[in-house]
Amino acid sequence: MKPTFISETTKLLNEFKKTHPETEQAQQAGRARLWDKKIDPEQQKEFKEAKVNQKPYVYYNK
């Protein structure tokens, strides 16, 4: 069986994670803070209903 190819970038990241084990936990905490949020369907519905359509050219005052 042929050995699998591992790029230099992957090797660098793997080595960095070995020397800095707290990085993985910090990444997961950052993701949870920014992306992993529960979405309230009722609130989303209200946002869509409250949306005001924008004119095609916003700087034209007519």
UniProtKB/TrEMBL annotation:
It comes from the Bacteria. InterPro entries: DUF3460 (IPR021853). It holds the Pfam family DUF3460. One of its GO terms (molecular function) is transferase activity. Keywords: Transferase. This is Acetyl-CoA carboxylase carboxyl transferase subunit alpha. The lineage of its organism: Bacteria, Pseudomonadati, Pseudomonadota, Betaproteobacteria, Burkholderiales.
